Amino acid sequence: xxxxxxxxxxxxxxxxxxxxxxxxxxxxxxxxxxxxxxxxxxxxxxxxxxxxxxxxxxxxxxxxxxxxxxxxxxxxxxxxxxxxxxxxxxxxxxxxxxxxxxxxxxxxxxxxxxxxxxxxxxxxxxxxxxxxxxxxxxxxxxxxxxxxxxxxxxxxxxxxxxxxxxxxxxxxxxxxxxxxxxxxxxxxxxxxxxxxxxxxxxxxxxxxxxxxxxxxxxxxxxxxxxxxxxxxxxxxxxxxxxxxxxxxxxxxxxxxxxxxxxxxxxxxxxxxxxxxxxxxxxxxxxxxxxxxxxxxxxxxxxxxxxxxxxxxxxxxxxxxxxxxxxxxxxxx
Length: 332
Ligand SMILES: [Zn+2]
Fold this sequence. Notes:
Layout: H1 3-15, E1 28-33, H2 42-46, E2 53-58, H3 68-79, E3 85-91, H4 101-110, H5 123-126, H6 133-146, E4 155-161, E5 168-172, E6 188-189, E7 236-237, H7 244-258, H8 262-277, H9 281-295, H10 302-316, H11 321-331
Helix pairs in contact: 7-10, 8-9, 8-11, 9-10
This protein binds zinc ion.
The site of zinc ion (ZN) has 7 residues, from loops.
């Protein structure tokens, strides 16, 4: 029986009024919300027994680039504590889906804390508020699947718990999701220094989470990113490309992977022609935007790479020939 089947069985038992604890077995990670209604309720509803479940709680069961500690805890649960699967468990009526910026402002002002303590950006964004609880669970699952810290075949499930009656619904079945998007057998993580897990990972860093230096973009080595059989190697995941070199590596990797695809070849031929005759970099960036939107579901770090390219363009001023040269090499 899979872990998910075991948990569903325990949940049926819970709903029927009895309690069934999971049998002894592998450890697993649960990422769930801070909501106090879940305390002492989540455990029997999922049959969580002592010694197996490694529970990480964040507001709205979220994990993202702005949430390093959550990711570090999950990574530690897997690589330090031996968790073999991850369950993201959202719940109905989550307060983060009813987030009111006005109420929160009133709340911290009452406590004597100025608005500026939370920066000058949007408060909803700062608190990562959301509207759709299920979509939010799926977002956390997808983030974990694509962050590059877990193997592509690592099981990551998404569940929703009814806060009232404890009924569990599977919204993402990690047992049935095939390794997707890339031909890689395993995603290779190259976390940028800014997001490399810090202190708790000192023992971990010696192992699976050790950051690798960014690979060179190698424009002159067409095919370098492919294996002898012509099959692209592992997809390079850099959640936060930190330099133009990172951005170029991501874009180059994308082009090398997709170049077998006829439609992509046509797109690239058109783009190359445009680069040769167009003098306005903004037009080129617009075309790249369109291309990135089309492929970003398969290449989650493309938008960040493009944004870095755009920032560099803005810093260096328009009209710089460097952009045309860089793109010509990337697309070659
Ligand atoms: Zn919640």
